[in-house]
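During the no-cost extension, the postdoctoral fellow (Dr. R.K.) reprocessed legacy sequence entries with the updated structure-token encoder. One reprocessed record is reproduced below for audit purposes.
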Amino acid sequence: MTLNNNDRLGRRLRAITGDLKLYIEKRVELLLLNVGEHFARMMAESVQKVAGIVLLSGASVCLLVALALYLGELLNSDSLGYVLVSIPLIVAGLMFYYLKPKSMVEKLQNHFEGEIIKAISMDEEQKDENLMIEQRKTEENKTN
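Re-encoded structure tokens follow.
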């Protein structure tokens, strides 16, 4: 009788470890799918933002050229118009390059980290909801 109980206990433990292994594998697989989904969404959003930046940059260049031509016409010197337009751009560029404000870097880093944390927490909430739905379905199947 004790041999029979040990055999049943061993089979039950093997079944539990098998189920646990399968559960862990499925959780890892779901995590990888969610990470891939968020990465794809971030890439799609960044492509859209880059396209917007390129279009805005092109429009800005056209406006600056038009301003330089206008100033050159007013001052009777095309090159002087371009110099006047480029001076504020050079000053602003040097300020961005040499000052490297830590607050801006920290804000961007915090924003990026916040987006990642939000995405992960949304994934966890979705996983919990899916798990509860599955549990309800299995309970309903057992009662039927």
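The mean pLDDT is 81. Residues 34 and 88 are 46 Å apart (CA to CA). The remaining legacy entries will be reprocessed before the final report is submitted.
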